[in-house]
């Protein structure tokens, strides 16, 4: 059975906290359906706090196995944003 693979576009603060948590992102990663993650890092914002969600959910919920993504591209913008793209890679 062929599965559909996805590209996720997400935004995080400078401290790595999700600005707009996407609950489906974690499930796609868990099911090996997430091929590319494009992250916009907003360098002008810090959210902090123990209960603020990270890219794949809250800090207490880990994926069942390691997922490996390698840096594909990075672009800095004058407004303090940085767009980073990662491509899924084979397990190490």
Account of the protein in words:
By secondary structure, the protein is mainly beta. The protein has a single domain, classed as Dihydrofolate Reductase, subunit A, CATH 3.40.430.10. The chain is built from one helix and four strands, in the order βαβββ. β3 and β4 (81-88) form a beta hairpin. The protein is globular and about 35 Å long. The protein starts with 5 loop residues before the first strand and ends with a strand.
Set out the fold topology.
Layout: E1 6-13, H1 23-30, E2 34-42, E3 69-76, E4 81-88
Parallel strand pairs: 1-2
Antiparallel strand pairs: 2-4, 3-4
- Alpha-beta classification: mainly beta
Question: Whole-number average pLDDT?
Answer: 79
CATH architecture field: 3-Layer(aba) Sandwich
- Strand order across the largest sheet: 1-2-4-3
Helix content: under 10%
Fold-level CATH name? Dihydrofolate Reductase, subunit A
> What is the 3D form?
globular
What is the count of β-strands? 4
CATH superfamily: Dihydrofolate Reductase, subunit A
What is the CATH domain class? Alpha Beta
What's the N-to-C terminus distance?
A: 25 Å
The whole-angstrom Rg is: 14 Å
Counted by DSSP, the helix tally is 1
Largest sheet: 4 strands, mixed
**From N to C, what is the helix and strand string?**
EHEEE
Q: Approximately what portion of the residues adopt beta-strand conformation?
A: 35-45%
The total tally of domains equals: 1
Sequence stretches where pLDDT stays below 50 over 5 or more residues: none
């Amino acid at each position: 059975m062929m599965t559909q693979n996805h590209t996720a576009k997400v935004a995080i603060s400078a401290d790595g906290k999700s600005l707009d948590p996407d609950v489906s992102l974690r499930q796609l990663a868990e099911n090996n359906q997430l091929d590319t993650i494009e992250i916009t890092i907003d360098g002008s914002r810090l959210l902090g706090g123990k209960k603020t969600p990270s890219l794949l959910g809250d800090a207490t919920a880990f994926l069942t196995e390691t997922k490996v993504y390698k840096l594909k591209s990075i672009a800095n913008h004058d407004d303090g944003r940085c767009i980073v793209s990662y491509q899924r890679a084979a397990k190490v």
